[in-house]
Amino acid sequence: MRVLIIEDELDIATNLYDHLEARGHSVDLARDGLSGLHLAVSESFDAIVLDLGLPGMGGLCVCKKLRQEVCSDVPVLVLTARDLLDDKLKAFECGADDYLVKPFALREVEARLLALARRRSGRVTDSRVVVDDLIYDPATLAVQFEGRAVHLSRKCLRLLETLLSGPNRVFSRADLEHAAWGSEQPMSDSLRSHMHILRRALTGSSGLSPIENVHGVGYRIAKRSV
After folding, report:
1. CB-based contact 58:33 (threshold 8 Å)
2. CB neighbours of residue 138 within 10 Å
3. Both 157 and 92 in a single domain?
4. Distance between CA atoms of 181 and 140, rounded to whole angstroms?
5. Domain co-membership, 114 together with 146
6. What was the pLDDT predicted at 226?
7. Is residue 90 a part of any domain in this protein?
8. Do 98 and 163 lie in a common domain?
């Protein structure tokens, strides 16, 4: 599951990030409403954890813009200290899917996020991406190749997600670096190293990988079937 946390309190954000990442989920973090909205619009997430008292742009405004202006259906779990009924009703009116009052248990947050992601995947049928012998389930982050489970790091998963978004399309180094590292500047050989690990993990019984290096251009998932 890929989760976006929009939370300005550093301790809370760090605890959520560390717990979800340790549980095998892919996590991104924004510390203000505007940055969170930008990430939510420009990236693909299975669920969002949203605080209401954010600097710059409040959580209610972020949620409302996601629903009314962007028409996003990504599930939103509001996580806030505001426990009045009117606050809850306003959040649901703005498009929130669930509401949890601080303090909270990290395991409960994860359970609610998983439930929201399952509910969403049920609405959009099968969310799995299948390219020949390669299967990726974005709801669970599970990868299978030639019938065997493949375990990948978070950045390798992001690279694979990007490549699978356009089978046979060649993605440039810049495309892939942005997908895996965002605005963070990677080390000079980081992309090459991660792609080597990813291609090795997806090497089949034939000794070949579906990920091809297009010399001087980038990488692609080569789809055999039409």
Report:
1. yes
2. 20
3. no
4. 21
5. no
6. 46
7. yes
8. no
Phi-psi region of 147 (alpha: psi -120 to 50; beta: other; left: phi over 0): left
Consecutive sets of 10 residues in the chain, 226 residues long: mean pLDDT of each?
94 93 91 93 91 93 90 90 89 92 90 87 65 84 88 89 90 88 78 93 88 91 73
Residue type, 19: H
The Cα–Cα gap between 226 and 210 comes to 15
Q: Can you give the residue range of the structural domain that contains 95?
A: 2-123
Take residue 9 and report the two structure tokens written for it.
Answer: 């309190």
- For residue 226, tell me if it sits in a domain: no
Cβ-based neighbours of 224, under 8 Å, separated by 6 or more: 132
- Give dist(CA 88, CA 99) in Å, integer: 7
The tally of domains found in the chain comes to: 2
In eight-state DSSP terms, residue 151 is -
* CA nearest neighbour of 176 among 151, 140, 165: 165
Could you tell me if 54 and 152 lie in one domain?
A: no
Judgement on whether residues 113 and 147 belong to the same structural domain of the protein: no
Between the alpha carbon of residue 78 and those of residues 28, 75, 102, the distances in Å are: 16, 10, 10
